[in-house]
Amino acid sequence: MSTTLLEGPGHALESIHPKFMVELVLGIDNPRLAPVAAQQQVFRERLMNEIMTQTRLRPWAMSGMFSENPGMRLGLAEKLAGMLDPGHLALTRMGDYLETLQLKGVGTETLQAQYAKVGAQFRQRAAHKQRALSQRGLVVQAGEHSEQVFTRWQTGQYNGWSLAGRCYIALEELRWGAFGDACRLANSEVTQLLKDNVSVMASQLLAQSVNASPATRHFYHQWLTTPGSTGSGLVEHKEMLGWLGGWCDAERHPLSWSVTQSWQTVALGMPRLCSAMRLVNGMVEEVFGEYN
Predict the structure, then answer these.
(1) In 10 A of CB 66, how many CB atoms?
(2) The model scores a pTM over 0.85
(3) Is 173:181 a contact under the CB 8 Å cutoff?
(4) Last residue of a domain, one of 119, 136, 153
(5) Among residues 75, 106, 136, which one ends one of the domains?
(6) Per-residue pLDDT for 148 more than 80?
């Protein structure tokens, strides 16, 4: 099977696996909690099949990513987490949610025992990772991570997306890695400093892409228009962006929602005239505000 998503738009993205695992676990109690467009559902199933092929877990493949079998979902997440490094954020989210399910008494006694066992494993791994991160220096690792992500942006590895989409991809990569860990685990002063530094770097890169200053305003179409291309690559890039930004809400996250959910009309809160600085600052607050 050709892994066109992972080798195409996903080839430079490290956030795919942890986000995928979290979706598996958070969908255990109610897999239909957040209905998506049919096209997005097809994308998610394609992504699952490719990850199953990549990790050689084909026997665990289900008829659809949102299978209503909670044991199957948890078993798959547990196996993936054993093969890959989900990162601190993913481990924390999965562990906390499984603990909630267990405390609420969701499912059979067998399932509750499984939630307690696997949840405890995830939380233990998260605690171990937090200690290791603190010992190595949160700020140093955050700086190294942001440099890696912005280098990928500068060298064109995100060029399949709109200008604003490239910025969002960079922020999504940061949130699931060492930079996001530092933002969540450091004190408020350090967190704000990290966010400010990223905002400055992203604003400069975004402004350079249109040969303007970070404060120069442009009609929003200039930021949101996808690069001209034909074939499945364009569709796959748009679907990947839509999946990564699937957490966005049009009212609470109008900029991120407008950038990622391009099959919809732009949100009312999306400025029609918008500078690189305004766009980046807004998305940074929307993305990293989810963890504070």
Answers:
(1) 21
(2) yes
(3) no
(4) 136
(5) 136
(6) yes
